[in-house]
């Protein structure tokens, strides 16, 4: 009996020892996890300060002119591209404006010249036309010392949609404009930067590539391409004195977001393009990967700590709501257009009826006058 009691006590002692070791191991793992998270968050906070606070303090000496006298900005007749070009011009850079609409390009160029007293050059091309346009661009810029290339031109879905609902034509546009344009423009301009050992290339990616974004499938994928393209180029050419920056804005109030009344209104999280560009340009030279706007950096941080499954569910819910909002607006516009057409037809019919009555009355008056004249001797 005593032997049994001793055996039980020994077994209990061994169990307690084992549990104690497990507890110590779990405590160590917990300490390592908390330490890692703390260090990671501290690093994120430090990077945020560097990207958005220190960069703005250092604007006086961090001039974009140190890269060269000319900047090339694609998609620069409106939105982020136009605002980015204006911001560079305000800091003394001459700008080459490349976009599709010739009239809007000319207007933007004149605005920049008169406001900032710099030189401009406009190139009207449609990037959906493929490789044929690049020789035209090269002829216009080959004699210019390009310091900064901003690959901004891009297209998005008309509004959030499931993949099979996106028209085939729009899918080709997404590839030709979002992927091909940045690739070929960089291939065209980067050699002269490498030769001079100075220059900067900005890839305007998107916050949509932070995590998988349902109902923006191809758009988000093309922006992920730009993000990875920028990171790889930065590694390849940093020893040549070249800065490659991936700029990942979340929602900015531009024509691209006009499908939604919510996203078209300026707010803390949805800034106007001018406010966004002012902060984004300041980060050039301080970081190779940024949202460009500090409230968007908070959004990106939240995205990264949310589990992917939960993120996709939330993104899908948001995009479903935005899609319904857009479809409702489109139906309302179609209804108004239809009513206007009906009103126009009614007006035309009324005018035609009045004209017919007037013509009949006129004919009757003329006939009556003719009869009176015939009765006179």
Automatic annotation (TrEMBL):
<comment type="similarity">
    <text>Belongs to the short-chain dehydrogenases/reductases (SDR) family. 17-beta-HSD 3 subfamily.</text>
</comment>
<dbReference type="InterPro" id="IPR002347">
    <property type="entry name" value="SDR_fam"/>
</dbReference>
<keyword id="KW-0560">Oxidoreductase</keyword>
<dbReference type="InterPro" id="IPR036291">
    <property type="entry name" value="NAD(P)-bd_dom_sf"/>
</dbReference>
<keyword id="KW-0521">NADP</keyword>
<protein>
    <recommendedName>
        <fullName>Inactive hydroxysteroid dehydrogenase-like protein 1</fullName>
    </recommendedName>
</protein>
<dbReference type="GO" id="GO:0016491">
    <property type="term" value="F:oxidoreductase activity"/>
</dbReference>
<dbReference type="InterPro" id="IPR052149">
    <property type="entry name" value="17-beta-HSD3-like"/>
</dbReference>
<keyword id="KW-0496">Mitochondrion</keyword>
<dbReference type="GO" id="GO:0005739">
    <property type="term" value="C:mitochondrion"/>
</dbReference>
<dbReference type="Pfam" id="PF00106">
    <property type="entry name" value="adh_short"/>
</dbReference>
<dbReference type="InterPro" id="IPR020904">
    <property type="entry name" value="Sc_DH/Rdtase_CS"/>
</dbReference>
């Amino acid at each position: 009996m005593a032997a049994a009691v001793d055996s039980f006590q020994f077994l209990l002692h061994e169990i307690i020892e084992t549990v104690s070791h497990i507890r110590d191991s779990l405590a160590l793992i917990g300490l390592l996890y908390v330490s890692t998270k703390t260090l990671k968050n501290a690093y994120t906070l430090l990077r945020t300060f560097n990207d958005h606070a220190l960069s703005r303090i250092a604007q006086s000496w961090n001039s974009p002119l140190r890269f060269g006298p000319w900047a090339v900005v694609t998609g620069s007749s409106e939105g982020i591209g136009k605002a980015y070009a204006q911001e560079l011009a305000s800091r003394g850079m001459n700008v080459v404006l490349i976009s599709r609409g010739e009239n809007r390009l000319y207007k933007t160029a004149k605005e920049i010249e008169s406001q900032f007293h710099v030189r401009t050059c406009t190139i009207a091309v449609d990037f959906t036309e493929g490789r044929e346009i690049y020789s035209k661009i090269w002829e216009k810029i080959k004699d210019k010392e390009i310091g900064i290339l901003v690959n901004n031109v891009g297209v998005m879905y008309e509004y959030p949609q499931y993949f099979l609902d996106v028209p085939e034509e729009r899918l080709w546009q997404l590839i030709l404009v979002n992927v091909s344009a940045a690739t070929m423009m960089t291939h065209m301009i980067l050699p002269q930067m490498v030769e001079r050992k100075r220059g900067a290339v900005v890839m305007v990616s998107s916050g949509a590539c932070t995590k998988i974004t349902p109902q923006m499938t191809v758009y988000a994928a093309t922006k992920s391409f730009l993000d990875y393209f920028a990171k790889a180029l930065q590694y390849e050419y940093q020893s040549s004195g070249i800065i490659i920056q991936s700029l990942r804005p979340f929602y900015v109030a531009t024509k691209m977001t006009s499908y939604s009344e919510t996203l078209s209104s300026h707010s803390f999280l949805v800034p106007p393009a001018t406010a966004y560009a002012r902060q984004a340009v300041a980060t050039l030279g301080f970081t190779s990967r940024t949202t460009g706007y500090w409230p968007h950096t908070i959004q990106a941080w939240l995205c990264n700590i949310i589990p992917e499954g939960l993120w996709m569910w939330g993104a899908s819910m948001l995009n479903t709501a935005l899609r319904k909002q857009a479809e409702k607006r489109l139906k309302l516009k179609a209804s108004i257009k239809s009513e206007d057409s009906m009103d126009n037809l009614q007006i035309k019919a009324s005018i035609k009826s009045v004209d017919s009555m007037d013509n009949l009355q006129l004919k009757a008056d003329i006939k009556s006058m003719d009869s009176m004249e015939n009765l006179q001797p």
